[in-house]
Amino acid sequence: MNRIAAIKSARVIRVLLMLGVALVLGGCTKGMSDLRSWVAQEKAKKGAPIEPLPVIKTFETFKYDDQNRRDPFSPSTAELQTNSATNGPRPDANRAKQPLEMFALDSLKMVGTVGSGAGMEVLIKDPGGVIHRVHVNEYMGQNYGHVTAISEDHIDLVELVSNGNGGWMERPASIALDANR
């Protein structure tokens, strides 16, 4: 008897399910008329006016007839003489390069100090993870960075960079203690 009741209840569930599907499908087709009327109204509306294209201005041509005069973008002979490579600072070509001079200054990290006072050394970590001891008057960085001062939280350097006229100029730089170490 239980099996017969289960079969009857399954049939009733199927009938109710089919009836529900029919009602849902019937409800979907009823609301299309108001959607179609709204779409037709939107299509009938006029769009915003398009702005006209801007008028292209024609530029006056200019002929440069002063080829024999000095180029305003190149240095004058007076500037070249005052900024020549013989005047002012310049790198020492005879000095042997130190290990930290093969790395860019921004790739080096200060990880600590050893000692105190005038004998203080700074610990510098290179991109390969090797830690170097650096003293005042040593060199580091690719721009001839000369260590001028060491403190517990930073190191001061003076770099030599090209001034663009064949000479060199000094540029201060520093590396702060890396908090992440």
Structural description of this entry:
There is one protein chain. This protein has a four-stranded antiparallel β-sheet, with no helix packed on it. A three-stranded antiparallel β-sheet has the order 1-2-3, with no helix packed on it. The two termini are 80 Å apart. 10% of the residues are buried. It is built from three helices and seven strands, in the order αααβββββββ. It has 181 residues and is an alpha+beta fold. The mean pLDDT is 83.
* Rg from alpha-carbon coordinates: 41 Å
Topology pattern, helix = H, strand = E: HHHEEEEEEE
Instruction: Report the count of strand segments.
Output: 7
CATH class of the domain at 77-91 and 100-176: Mainly Beta
Major sheet attributes: 4 strands, antiparallel
Give the terminus-to-terminus CA distance.
Answer: 80 Å
Helix amount, in percent? 25-40%
- β-strand percent reads 15-25%
Here the CATH topology of the domain at 77-91 and 100-176 equals SH3 type barrels
Name the shape in a single word.
flat
Global mean pLDDT: 83
Instruction: Look at the helices and sheets and give the structural class.
Output: alpha+beta
Q: What tags apply to this protein structure?
A:
three-stranded antiparallel sheet; 27% helix; alpha+beta; four-stranded antiparallel sheet; 7 strands; 181 residues; SH3 type barrels
Which secondary structure elements does this structure contain, and how are they paired or packed?
Blueprint: H1 2-30, H2 32-44, H3 77-82, E1 109-114, E2 121-125, E3 131-134, E4 139-140, E5 145-150, E6 154-162, E7 168-176
Antiparallel strand pairs: 1-2, 2-3, 4-5, 5-6, 6-7
